[in-house]
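re: the backbone from monday

yeah here it is again, tokenized this time
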């Protein structure tokens, strides 16, 4: 692993799992997503991992027209690296998932490195009253569903987004097997260093949020990739800050935001992603580390530059 001289903070503002019932602070409209993202940059984030929502219902959407309502505004107001999801929302077919990437041609896209039981059905049991009819069935469907990203699908994204637009990737690895899947594409030459591996802990169906698993993911990634990669860490829910602190202390980068956790403390909803960015930035400062600026993140990850995107 390349030990980061400065820590890249990625902020994920809204995602596709949490629903409007769960928090009044979850960004849904283009205005809310733009503000949450811009406030996070002001707080210290250098990379913004972005999804879109239907402004009326809060349902995840990959409609490029919706991304067009907030991406230019964020670009005009910040120098942050924009990272567009190719995961989209649960149940979306591949071409729908990557429609926003085709529109934006961003510096970075996320890329899940394998198929998995991406389960959120337990969240459906936590609420009695729902703001929208779609929310509970959307979550319940994950009991019988699977999130697909086959080798063929990964190859399609690497070719038709990565090679086509000079876009690099946040390789999202939810389990150790995903690291080996990534190693395949490194061997074929489709993934070139330096690359960013986002290790994700605590998703039901992926690797658990146990400290031993963080060390194991690091050990296997080092075995497979040596110094060719930067590591980033995220954990969902209550484990968020614990894992970010551990990751930063061991030379990793970090990701936070309302996509990953709705809370800022035990039982206390975060009012914005910026609150979480401020919290981890203070921890990074206490560890004697420095936070990377957007331009420093671009240099570390060998990105094409914010002037080379399509929005």
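seq for it, each position gets an aa:
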């Amino acid at each position: 692993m390349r030990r980061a001289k400065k820590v890249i903070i990625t902020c994920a503002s809204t995602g596709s799992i949490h629903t409007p019932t769960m928090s009044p602070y979850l960004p849904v409209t283009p205005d809310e997503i733009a503000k949450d993202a811009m406030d996070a940059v002001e707080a210290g984030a250098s990379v913004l991992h972005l999804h879109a929502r239907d402004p009326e219902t809060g349902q995840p959407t990959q409609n490029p027209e919706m991304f067009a309502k907030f991406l230019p505004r964020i670009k005009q107001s910040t120098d942050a690296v924009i990272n567009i999801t190719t995961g989209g929302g649960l149940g979306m077919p591949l071409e729908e998932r990557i429609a926003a990437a085709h529109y934006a041609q961003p510096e970075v896209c996320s890329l899940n490195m394998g198929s998995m039981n991406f389960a959120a059905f337990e969240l459906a049991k936590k609420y009695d009253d729902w703001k929208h009819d779609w929310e509970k069935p959307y979550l319940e469907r994950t009991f019988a569903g699977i999130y697909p990203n086959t080798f063929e699908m990964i190859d399609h994204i690497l070719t038709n987004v990565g090679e086509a637009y000079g876009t690099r990737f946040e390789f999202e690895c939810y389990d150790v097997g995903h690291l080996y899947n990534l190693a395949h594409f490194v061997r074929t030459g489709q993934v070139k260093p330096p690359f960013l591996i986002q290790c994700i802990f605590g998703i039901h169906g992926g690797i658990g949020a146990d400290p031993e698993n963080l060390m194991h993911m690091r050990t296997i990634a080092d075995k497979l990739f040596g110094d060719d990669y930067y590591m980033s860490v995220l954990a969902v829910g209550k484990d968020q800050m614990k894992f970010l602190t551990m990751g930063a202390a061991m030379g990793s980068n970090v990701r936070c935001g309302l996509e990953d956790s709705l809370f800022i403390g035990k039982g206390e909803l975060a009012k914005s992603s910026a609150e979480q960015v401020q919290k981890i930035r203070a921890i990074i400062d206490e560890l004697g580390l420095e936070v990377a600026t957007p331009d420093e993140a671009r240099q570390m990850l060998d990105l094409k530059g914010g002037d080379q995107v399509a929005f």
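The radius of gyration is 18 Å. Residues 202 and 209 are 5 Å apart (CA to CA).
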